[in-house]
Structures
1.
Amino acid sequence: MKANEDDGNLVFSYTPLYTTETIGMDVYYRDTITTIIKGLQLDLIKILTIFTLIDFSSNNFSGSIPKEIGELKALYALNLSGNAFTGEIPSSFGNMSSIESLDLSQNHLSGQIPPQLSTLTFLSHLNVSYNQLTGRIPTSTQFSTFPNTSFEGNKGLWGPPLTWDTTIVLPPPTFNGSSSNPNSGDEIDWDIISVEIGFTCGFGIAIGLLLFCKRWRNWYYRAMFNILFNTFPQLEHRFGTEGMLT
């Protein structure tokens, strides 16, 4: 079913369907409707009675989403997008064990995404984009299959599948009152740079002394030869100290 434009809160009432066609044991609704399921617009001509769907999209419904919707355990698809709903997503939605498509996008919903939604094993399409949701996105095998477009437009949401470019999450401020971001590419590590400069200068000075100071060069060679002769005495008998220096 799909509701018409309304300026009030969403209120449920039961209206029996009176136009049906029986073929054997199957019952079809003869009403033709256009609905959006899993992000696709579909024109339904004949509808099986077991096909349960609620589409209240693109209306002016406001207020909180009724938590009683979560008791519709046989519901296949729920589309409440394009309204003005406020408040949190009811945690009772975790009871809709048969739900495959849930679209709550383009409302004014706030708070966190209920972790109960991560238990909906049949949920293959979820869209909560462009709300005011906050907190970490629940982690589960099911949620890992949803694209980042399912969560975009919520500045307070963070965690996979959102990337660092679409979320603003900074670590706690340091003692000097500034926030440090370990992923920032503009920050210079002066400790590493000072070590590299010191090593380069020391190495350059040592090489320069060996090249341009004969006294230092002879002293260095004698020290190295003494180490070699102490380690390998046979070298001293074979070459001699003077022979190694010439």
Note: Residues 89 and 113 are 7 Å apart (CA to CA).
2.
Amino acid sequence: MPVRDKGTGRAPRPDDGPRHGGAPGGTAHSAAARNLRWLLGNLVEEVPGVRSVAVISSDGLLLCSSEADGDDPAAPGERATGPGKAGGDLATVVSGLASLTDGAARLMSAGTVKQTVVAMDNGCLFVMAISDGSLLGVHASPECDMSVVAYHMALFVGRAGHVLTPELRSELSRSGRTDGTSGAHGAYGTAGNDQADPNDLRGSGR
């Protein structure tokens, strides 16, 4: 768990610390990439019940994940933010689910898919579209408040829509290929071109 600033009570932002260095293994190092990873880590740390988060590109590539690599777990007290095998698994599931729901939306002439929620005995899976065509996938515990998770996901989507520039997507894609964590394969269609609006979600929990 990240050390919180005693004055603000929040997790340190990426621009609070040194500008040099970064995660090993070919992980992207730009300020924009650090900012996106901070947003991911903050979503996991601040929203009760959220277990892992991943951002997946429109062609099914894992761009960024809060999960540690299954063969190289994070050190005690630390949270890995670079794509790993566990993050790749989440990306595969999210990409496949997005493809399925996109097909259902076309079949029903229902327009674009804004969000998808799957409730299971031992967990919940949330998928939400980001404005650039990429996806946000969240794995949460069964005890989570779904409306609160969806609300904070929508906030993330609004922020990530400004952060995920073509340059950053290219940087993260190159980093993922270098790490061998390409995630899911195959595009999921045109689902997710509309940015979610937090005001459209009920039960914000605030």
Note: The two ends are 24 Å apart (CA to CA).
3.
Amino acid sequence: MLKLILADNQAIFRAGIAKVLAVEDEMRIVAQAQTSEQMFMALDKFRAAVLIVAGGFHGEFNAVLQAANKVRTRVVVLADTGESAQKYMGAGAHGVVYRNVVRDRLTAKELRIVALIVQGYKNKEIATQLGTTEQVIKNYLRNVYDKIGVSDRLELALFTIHHRILNEAAAATAAAHQPQPGPAGVAT
């Protein structure tokens, strides 16, 4: 089980991430921190976790890394567009997710897959629901990861919250289940 610590000064962000990740069996949010003090206490209490750090904590990044390294906790940074990923990765972060990147438009099918991912479906379940193979779903996911610049489901969930992809994905899923008009506006 992957233990997650969410550190951001915005309660709405933490609540959104917590809601998305609540459906993941392999991940559990063990702490949320709004202040530096809360974050450092959580790092000390929950060792060998993953710290997702954003917002006002970037100014204390070196102290965050030192504290995390002492307790074998990996750090994923949520950065703003224009900030150098290399700066964070070179300093010791294990990943960087951008909040405000310009992304390629996801196709309707990719949005449906994203919607199912954030609802907690596994690749095999998605494949069954969409009438395809698990390998095809993996291929789609690789394409989605490449388009939006993430490397796994956790980063996809974070990106989804920040960029409101859930809204697009919900619309794509609803549209896929709407009856299609036939000739002369007759639903088929």
Note: Residues 2-98 form a domain with the Rossmann fold fold (CATH 3.40.50.2300).
4.
Amino acid sequence: MFLSASPVPQTGVSGVRHSTFGSLRLGRSSHSIASGLLCFWDSLNFKKDREFMGITILFLDENIP
């Protein structure tokens, strides 16, 4: 499965064109997709009446050369 997207004009890195996930379409393309993912998890201690213990944050990012 291949995805293609219509570029969205933005300022930033020259030569890099940005697109939104909503503009992705199925089909052949020579472009690649780079994305970031940010997730939050909260931790509860069920042995101590569901006491809040903390938040874990995970951020994954693709570096565009």
Note: The chain has one domain: 3-61.
